[in-house]
Task: structure prediction
Amino acid sequence: MHPEILSITLFGIVAAYSPGPNNFVAFYSGFNFGITRTLPHIIGVTFGFPFLLLCVALGLINVFKLYPLIQEILKYLGTLFLIYLAYKISFSNSKNQENKNKNPVKFIETFVFQFLNPKAVIASIIIVSTYIKVGENFVSHTTQIVILALLVSVTSITLWTFLGKFFRKFATNQKFINYFNYVMSLLLLLSILTFYL
Result:
């Protein structure tokens, strides 16, 4: 067992459950599409972040240290994707039935986005540089942390989805739904600012 497993768990919970792009999209999707249609997003985050963490542990962290420009480029690409997503969320209030039934985020988009999500990349770098050391325990500690990341990811993203689904009970008319989507779009855009502060 990793000697600092409690510390890692607490850090993971704070990082995963706090507001951020993944959670805002889960909340929005749970509200507008329900649990079933949000499953691609839930699965994408659940496996995407642990895979990012594994890649960072296996050497991506060294690439970021040698070429910090790569991390900057990923941040800007992530920003562009979030702006695009905020646009889609903001205008998803269309009465067109196809738009109502179509989740704006697919599994592969969510999975790949973890590599563009500055919050996820920074959290991975902190975890790897603080808790994973090269040595005889490298494989054991990396495995434990990746499994923990998977558990924290699935519980946090599912909770935010259920919160969105619960909040839907208070949606009494289309105008309320439209305003909700505008607020979610704005929160997504505001989350971008935290990447540059």
About this structure: Helices lie at 5-17, 21-66, 68-90, 97-101, 107-113, 118-131, 138-167, 174-193.
